[in-house]
Amino acid sequence: FSAPIFLWTCLTALSVHAAGNVVNTYVDFMRGVDSQRSDDRTLVDRLLTPDELAHLGVILYALGCVGFVSLVLLSPAKMEHLALVYFGGLSSSFLYTGGIGLKYIALGDVLVLVTFGPVSVLFSFMAQAGYVDLGVLLYAMPLALNTEAILHCNNARDRESDARAGAVTVAILVGPTGSHVLYALLLFVPYMVFTVLGVHFSLWWLLPLITLPQA
């Protein structure tokens, strides 16, 4: 375990994640999706101007690239392997709402499920271990599903405003009842995964079950 690699990995992942959130805020505002009822009112309440937010996004992406270069120098992993996963994650964070806007054609949920689970975990593992092990993707499943649960919850709440703006999300496609069922699955399936991992590998995997009553 390398503490410097861990810190640079955190900086890189958080910077790209934050940059993706900034792009999402900017594009949603420009498309007229955000309103006074939205959870993100950074531009609606004029806390920042669109230009200031765009500059912030550039800075965050640049910071992520600095972190990536540092990892290339420090990590035992091959540069091409790190680059493939890193730039795949970076482009995904932008394309969620920027460019073709996968969020608006009901593909945003799939993108988030892949990016904030398998891609993030695989990148972190490679940076530390120096090699690729697809087995770590199993450990990424609970994280991916919980992240998707948060996104789906937000999309279910914003279903009407998204529809008025012409966006198509999974929450819109499945309707109110389907959204509730899907949210419950996304919330509780990770506990099933943890149980399986705990039975077959280590009892430490059962530790997240203490949060089950709150869920």
Automatic annotation (TrEMBL):
Record Gene3D superfamilies: UbiA prenyltransferase
GO biological process terms on file: menaquinone biosynthetic process; vitamin K biosynthetic process
Similarity comment text for this entry: Belongs to the UbiA prenyltransferase family.
Pathway given in the UniProt record: Quinol/quinone metabolism; menaquinone biosynthesis
One Gene Ontology cellular component: Golgi membrane
Organism: Theromaster brunnea
Topology within the bilayer: Multi-pass membrane protein
Molecular function as annotated in GO: prenyltransferase activity
Pfam families tied to this protein: UbiA
UniProt keyword annotations, A-Z: Membrane, Menaquinone biosynthesis, Prenyltransferase, Signal, Transferase, Transmembrane, Transmembrane helix
Signal peptide: 1-18
Membrane spanning stretches: 53-74, 83-105, 191-212
Subcellular location(s) of the protein: Membrane
Primary site of residence: membrane
Domain of life of the organism encoding this protein: Eukaryota
Protein name: 1,4-dihydroxyl-2-napthoate octaprenyltransferase
